[in-house]
What does this fold into?
Amino acid sequence: MILVVDFGSQTSHLIARRLKDLGVETKIVSPEEILLRQLEDQDDKSVKGIILSGGPASVYEKGAPSIDVKIFNLGIPILGICYGLQLTAHLLGGKVVSGKKEYGPVTLKIKDERLKMKDNNFSSIISHLSSQFVVWMSHGDEVIKLPRGFKTVGSSDGVPFAFVENKDKKIYGLQFHPEVEHTEFGLQVLKNFISICQKGHPERSEGSRDSSVAPQNDIINKIKQIVGEKDYVIGAVSGGVDSTVAATLTAKAIGKRFIPIYVDNGLMRKGTKQHVVKIFKKIGIKPIVVNAKGEMLVRLKKITDSEQKRKIIGNFYIDIFEKVRKKLLAKKLPVKYLLQGTIYSDVIESGAQRSPAGASAKEDQGSRHTAVIKSHHNVGGLPKKMKLKLLEPVRNFYKDEVREIGRSLGLPEEFVNKQPFPGPGFAVRIRGEVTRQRLKMEKKADEIVLSELQKAGILPNVFLSFPVMTNAYSTAVKGDGRNFGEVVALRIVESKDIMTSTWSRIPYGILQKISSRIVNEVPGVSRVVYDITTKPPATMEWE
It folds into this structure.
C-alpha cells in the first residue's frame, strides 16, 4: 500500500487513481492521520510508501497544514509533490518563499549524471526518463534552499529545484505534477517511485493504461442498498453524459421507482429536451419535463457575479424538485432521494462542500484543506437545508471513467463521447447579466462553432468547444460605419479527465471561418478572440 497524504490538492484523488491504475493499493489520508497510523501500528508492514500531495496553502503561513517531522525517520520512501516538496524542504531545514510562479506546461531538464550510465535501472527515480520533457506546473511558491543531504535531479528555466532527492533516505520531491495527463513521463516517475517502494526493477511505462473503473454491478448494488425497496428517487437530468449515466445506473437498480426530471430552463443547447426524451425512451422511462424558461431569466435579472449565478440556479432547481416531490407524495409515492450526475471534478473544484447519501467521510474523497475554485451548482450551489437526500453514484469518478461506465451500460458511442456542458448552461458562458438578447447571441454563436467544427471533421476530436460573451466591448467597422460591439472569446480545448487541459491547435482557416460567421451573423458582436490558456491556470469554463 502507498498512502497519499491530502493537503487539499485539486489532484490528490487523481494521484491515488494513477497508483491504482498501476496496480498499487492506495489510501488517501489526512495530514493528521498519517503519523498516528504509522506510530500506533508498528506491526503494520503493509505501507511501503508515502506521497505528500500538493495544496493551496503556503508552508510559511500561520495555520498551513503540516505533518510531524518524525515521518521522515520511519524508513519509508516518501515522494513530495508541489506543496509536498515545499513542506518537506521547510520541515527538514530548507527554505521556501513566494517565488517564480509557473502554471501549465514547462520544460524540465534532468541534470542527474546517472542518465548517462548504462545501468541506472535499479530503484532509480530517473529510470527511463528523457533528458528533458514537458511537465505541468501549478505553483506560486518555490524552494530556494535544499535541506542537507538533498541534491538536484532536474530544473526548469524558472525553478532550479524542480526535481530533487535524498537518495540515502529515499525522499524525493517534485515541483511539477506527475499525476496529470499532460505531464510527459509522469506515469514513469510514479512507476519509478513504486519500484523504489517495492525495492524492484522499474519497468518502462508505455503510456496510460485504461482506468480501473468500478464494475457497474457494484454501483448498482450500492444504489439498491442506499435507496432500499420502497423509496423513490427523482433525478435531475440535463442530457449530458454524467447525469444520463447516473440515471441509467439508478434505473437499472430500482426500475420504475426512478423518475427523471428535465428542467427546460432556456439555458441549454438547442434540441437538448428532445435528446433527453429520446435517451430515456431507450431506457424505458418517460421523464417529467418542467418548463422554467421565463422564471429562470427573472431570477437571473441583474445578477452579474458567477458564484451568485450558480447558487441561484442550484436553489431554483431544488425549488422545482421540491414541488415535484410534493405532487408525487400526494400520489402516495414516497420520494426520498434526488439523483445528480455529480462527478469528481465538480466535487474538488467546489471544495468538497457536500457529501452524498450513503457516503462516510472516508468514502467521500474531499478534503477540508481544498480551496473552492467555483461552487458548482450541483455541489456548492445547493441550499444548506434540503428535504431530499442526495444520491450521486458517479461522484468519485472522473469524466473519462464515467464515459467508460456509460459504454459498459450499452449507451451509444456518439452519446458517450458527447462534449461536456455545464449544468447552469449558457448562464456561465455569458459574462455579466444574462439577458434575453445576450442569451440569443450566445446560442447563435454556439451553433456556428459546433457547425464549423463538424464540417471540418474536428468536432469528434475536441473535448470541449464554446464561445463566451465576454462583456468586453470594442470598436468595429461594419458597412463603412462605426460599430461598438461585444467581444466573443472562443475556447476549444483538449482534455481527458477535466483536471488539466490544453488549447486545441485548430487550423487557422477554420478559426477564420468561425470568426467571420460570428461577426457577420450574430448582431452586436465586434470581434472574436481565441483563448489559448491551459488548465492550470485557467478553468475549463470562464465562470
